Structure formats: structure tokens, C-alpha cells
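ok so I'm stuck.
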Amino acid sequence: MTTAPLPPDLPAQIAAHLGGVRPAGHLLVASLAESVADRRAHQHPKGEDLYCHNLASWAGERIGPVLRRLIDAETERDRLRVELDKRTAQHAEAAAALAEQVQRSGQRIREHNADREELERLRAELAAADTSVVCDAEGHAIPHSSSCPSAARTERDRWQALADALNAVGSVGIALNGTLTYPATHPVMWDRDAMRWVLAPYDD
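replied:
not stuck anymore, here's the structure
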């Protein structure tokens, strides 16, 4: 059985009636409970029951502190209920803020992963591209085709790079044996064994 709470204005009225009465301690509460049990177990005579009257009179004299304890307990209960409602609302607000923060963090993680995947894709494309560089006689890099500088070089680009290299050398001659000669000391000759063009051994 659930006890209905006191009406909102009743605790103040009871407190005004009690005045400065202090709340009952646990020993008094236990004694009052024993007096109730004694009255219930007492063999009631047919006439006047002085024993029960005495117990009722003793309990009545001590009901004020019990009521004070009851009012204090009701007041504290109501305060705790208000505090509980307040903290429940604060918890719900904090939980909502945390959920929003987790959602934003998840979005940032997804964006970071997408950026990383895009970076890996670009790295793979860069690794697949032909990034070899042809240098002229002075060690300057000859760039790829200006129309598409970042693309892999075509066959025409390779021949153009060769022409650019020869032009950069300046005066180049061709010997009877097919050797490309330079007025300085670095002739280029065809190595039949290696099947490629090579620099001739340097002769002091």
C-alpha cells in the first residue's frame, strides 16, 4: 500500500502547531512501537482498561517529537525529489551534448579517412607515372612535354628529349663508325654487346 504524500500546505501547518519541539530519536520511536504491541497483546477487561489508557496517555505525551520527525522526513524527501529531477535533467542535457560531440568526432574521423584514401590514391597514381628525367650536358633536367608535364612520357617525348639533349650539348659530330663525338672528351658510341649507347672510355 502506497502512502499518499501530505498536501503541500499541511507540513507548514503541523510545524506551526509543534513549535520548537525536537524530532524523536530512534529509542523513542522504538518505545512507541513497543507500546502499540503491548496494547494489542493485552487482555482487555470488560470494564475500564486502565492499562491501555496509561499506554495511550504515555504515547500521546510523546507524539509531538514523532510528528516533528515525520515532518522533517517529508520535507527532506521533497527536497531530494527536486534535486533528483534537477540532476536528471542535467544528466539528460550532458548526455545529449556528449552524443553530439561523438557524432561530430565520428564525422571528423570519416573525413580524415577519406582524405587519407585520396592521398594514397594520388601516391599510387604518382608511382605508376613515368617520372624519369633526362639531363643535358650541363646536368640540367629536361622536362616532359609542356602540354602535359605530369603525364607519363610518350615515344615522341623520348625522341624530343634526345633532340633537346643534343641541342644542349652544342657542337656534335658523327664519326664514320657511328660514334657521336663532342669537341671535348666524351664521345658516345654504340655498344654492340650491350645493344645500347654508352660513353666511350675516358682517355687521359
